[in-house]
Amino acid sequence: MAHFNAILGYSSPATAIAPTTHAREHLLHHRFCKAKPSSFKELRSSRSGVGAAAKPQVVKAVLNKDVEISDTKKVDGLRGKLDKVVLAYSGGLDTSVVVPWLRENYGCEVVCFTADLGQGASELEGLEEKAKASGASRLVVKDLKEEFIRDYLFPCLRAGAIYERKYLLGTAAARPIIAKAMVDLANEVGADAVSHGCTGKGNDQVRFELSFFALNPKLNVVAPWREWDITGREDAIEYAKKHNVPVPVTKKSIYSRDRNIWHLTHEGDYLEDPANEPKKDMYMVTADPEDAPNQPEYVEVGFELGIPVSVNGKRLSPGNLVAELNEIGGRHGIGRVDTVENRIVGLKCRGVNETPGGTILFTAARDLESLTLDRETLQLKDSLALKYAELVYAGKWFDPLRESLDAFMEKVSATTTGSVTLKLYKGNASVTGRMSPYSLYRKDIASFEDGEVYNHADAVGFIRLYGLPLRIRAMMEQGI
């Protein structure tokens, strides 16, 4: 639960803390004179009224549950008291200003956490110094690239999970692994809360918090963008300057980007008008197809049980395999997708994704299944893939339904072993060949020549029975 309904203060269930008279007057002034009406719940009136000469009121704050606050102790933060908070930290504008805001408003120690998901060394460089300069006590960085690909993205690939026909879930699948690592760290350092810098309009707030709820419902969740008076990026920049927080953006920055080993997504400013064509200088991972090599390149991807294991005959770890295909696909302009999608909260948003390796893998995996799965199984798998993608997109990675669907996908992919060859040329990845020891395709049966298994004459009876409903309807309509 992210929104703290405290007006004067908060105490943990174990310790009751109340505001001093000075703090109460200051906060009441902030409540009625500075804060936006929508930022807080209306102050509950009492019999004597605020400021009346009566015995002190008991004010309730809500984190996980209502907690009564006594009137005898000092408030450590403007909004309440937390002991230690683990913050999802990228070093960007949003999370940089969260650090001093948490300390100021909840009087807490802030432990920053960064997941290395392959976003690049430049995004990790100097991160510890920046976090500490913002007021954090420490920064914990964990390399999760292999786990991210192996345990999160490859299951999505095996399931054929694509959200709204285009999106390969690069950001959606990253949030649960980050949330899990944050919960593990919170347990390790004894934190009583976790926090993120997601806005109230986006998907990530839902993804993070549903994962927190599933993994440790006892943790409090702080979502500053839903609580503070900062209304946009320019306000955040001013707040950062005021608190001497180093941030890497200026008011001239236009794109909001999320990058990991699977993809790079671009949103914001110029792209917010869906009629605008993306600018050529926006792309960072893939070459412009017009400038890509004039000669095609062939690549072979090997699969075992629906999971990719090799590139051009060379077995690679999940992370290295994706990195290899990113490099190959990137130079041919593979994986550029311009999409308008429906966010979890109901808004539509426009974004442009670069997913070269992922595009190659999804193209290959779907084609290999054309050999190894029968019609009924393939149709059911495709229908369930839509639900799988919706669950991942909506932040329900740890939902039992997603796990149950994954069990089905694992079982149905038991024969999806083999290799697929693709031709990469000017932004296109087209399949040129596929092989599998479990192939249901039989050349001797598929041939136009007569054989022992399939007799052309057998089709007569089949067609008459298969078309019987159509024939009866036509007879009825024509009075036959």
UniProtKB/TrEMBL annotation:
Cross-referenced PROSITE patterns: ARGININOSUCCIN_SYN_1, ARGININOSUCCIN_SYN_2
GO molecular function, one term: argininosuccinate synthase activity
Protein's UniProt keywords contain Transit peptide: no
Enzyme class, UniProt record, top EC level: ligase
UniProt keyword list: Amino-acid biosynthesis, Arginine biosynthesis, ATP-binding, Ligase, Nucleotide-binding
One Gene Ontology CC term in the entry: cytoplasm
The UniProt record lists the keyword ATP-binding: yes
Superkingdom of source: Eukaryota
EC number: 6.3.4.5
Pathway it works in: Amino-acid biosynthesis; L-arginine biosynthesis; L-arginine from L-ornithine and carbamoyl phosphate: step 2/3
Annotated ranges, domain Arginosuccinate synthase-like N-terminal: 84-246
Residue ranges annotated for the Arginosuccinate synthase C-terminal domain, each copy included: 255-472
GO biological process: one example: L-arginine biosynthetic process
PANTHER family assigned to the protein according to its UniProt record, in alphabetical order: ARGININOSUCCINATE SYNTHASE (PTHR11587)
Oligomeric form and interacting partners: Homotetramer.
Protein name: argininosuccinate synthase
Organism, scientific name: Pisum sativum (Garden pea)
